[in-house]
Amino acid sequence: MAPDTAPDTVFDIAIVGAGPTGASLALAVAQTGFRVLLIDGRDPDQVRADGRNFAIVRGSWRLLEGCGVTEGLVAEAEPLNGLEATDGGTHWFGAPSALFTAEDLPEDEAGVPLGYMIEAPRLQGALDAKLADERLIDWQRKAAFTGFERAAGHVAVSLGDGRVFRARLIVGCDGVNSPVRQAAGIAVEGRDYGKSVFAANVSLSRPHGGIARQLFTPEGPFATLPLRGDRANLAWYMKTGAAETLAGLGQEEIEAELNSRFAEFAGEMRLEGKAISYPLELKIADEMVAARVALVGDAARRINPLAGQGLNLGFKDVAALVEVLEDGRHAGLDIGALNVLDPYQQWRRFDANATALGLDAVDRLFSNDRAVLKPLRGAGLMLADKLPFLRRRLARQASAQQSHLPKRMQPARR
Ligand SMILES: Cc1cc2nc3c(=O)[nH]c(=O)nc-3n(C[C@H](O)[C@H](O)[C@H](O)COP(=O)(O)OP(=O)(O)OC[C@H]3O[C@@H](n4cnc5c(N)ncnc54)[C@H](O)[C@@H]3O)c2cc1C
User: Rounded CA gap, 322 and 139, in Å?
Assistant: First the structure.
């Protein structure tokens, strides 16, 4: 549908980036009546090779449901029935493990899976299709954001082709290197893990039962994430260089390497399509807001993908920001003003940073074979497996079921 945009329009919100967070934010705010300018460098007609598959947890799925994108996706997604973590280090008492299932979550949603596994291009395709239909979104495709300037009551947003648009608020959903964050002068902190993740889709010789399984080895974790059919997405964390080298080998060599190491854990694996490697880094923005600016998703923080939480944190940002902006509008306030945006930062920063740093600690604890840490992590997994209250707590955290969830992520009231 063609957007209804006059040349002197002042948009309510300019969103830079139409990846999963930018696209869902654009849909959610447009559906509540905000007029949106969406700027993205991608060509949505070109599907890029992407070995990522997202574990979309319950709360995030509800947000997507509200945006109207899950109807077609359900048939392509694999329900996630459980998460299993196994310590593959050497212990005299064997390999401790913990299994979390939907039974560890509140009973009022019996039969609802922990979440869904979905291939990244399919999720993006569903979001793009919905964006193209939304009348209140002016979607500038294949367009580069180059900077913004603050003016009275708005920001002037510049594109690479020389055009300038005006909006009351600019939101950076523009990924880990966020040009919006840089233009706003917001600093980042973090570290380079010196590791990359090798990602590939495989068919398995054994049924996976919808269970995502993670084996912690001294060199780093190896995960099989269930996909439709007896297929899985692999994520194997290694030193930078090793993952890139492995991804560059031929199919037979990759399969030989995978099967010699992990066939006992996962079953025989056959590669489907291309393997890709992604470098890992921890990057946390010092602020999530500034005057007329908000950051969402990887623009606000890039975390270790170990527990598949990065995008889920981004979706929580989306749901929280929409709610805060609606409240601001309801109170008759300027949605670009800091006093409107501050509650968004207060709501999201602690939760997201705690998750980022928690995963950092898990990475340090499990990715080595140091004698002093081994009993600690073995005991941790055994406790998580044996103590129902601890399992429930961890499962709620992982599937976005805790309190203070934004409304769009909460279960429907009966
Ligand atoms: C191997 C791997 C597995 C993962 N698995 C999971 C998982 O299971 N679950 C999970 O929750 N998370 C997972 N993550 C994390 C997840 O990939 C990210 O958190 C998520 O993609 C971030 O989305 P985003 O929309 O914030 O940013 P991005 O997806 O990076 O999108 C940014 C967008 O901004 C656009 N852009 C950038 N600069 C400009 C500019 N100057 N002008 C115009 N447009 C611009 C880009 O074109 C792009 O479309 C994984 C990550 C990796 C590496």
Answer: 19
Ligand 1, residues at Cβ distance < 6 Å: 16-22, 39-42, 52, 54-55, 144-145, 173-175, 179, 197, 199, 235, 278, 297-298, 305, 308-312, 314
User: What average pLDDT is seen over the chain?
Assistant: 87
Residue 54 CA: nearest ligand 1 atom is 8
Question: 175 phi and psi, to 5 degrees?
Answer: 80, -175
Ligand 1 centroid to Cα of residue 30, in Å, is: 21
CA of 17 to the centre of ligand 1 (A): 9
Which residue type occupies 341?
A: L
| pLDDT given for residue 319 in this prediction | 98
CA 200 → CA 80, 94, 115, 163, distances in Å?
18, 29, 21, 40
Q: Write out the E strands in 141-268.
A: 145-151, 154-159, 164-172, 188-204, 211-217, 220-227, 231-239
The string of pLDDT tens digits covering residues 41-100 is 998 888 777 768 899 999 999 999 999 999 989 999 999 988 888 877 555 555 566 676
Neighbours of 32 (CB within 10 A): 12
Dist CA 241 CA 247 (whole Å): 10
* Topology, domain 10-190+282-404: FAD/NAD(P)-binding domain (3.50.50)
The span from the CA of 304 to the CA of 315, in Å, is 16
- Residue 71 and residue 357: Cα distance in Å, rounded? 35
Distance CA 78, CA 32 (A): 30
Q: What is the pLDDT confidence band of residue 2, given thresholds at 50, 70 and 90?
A: very low
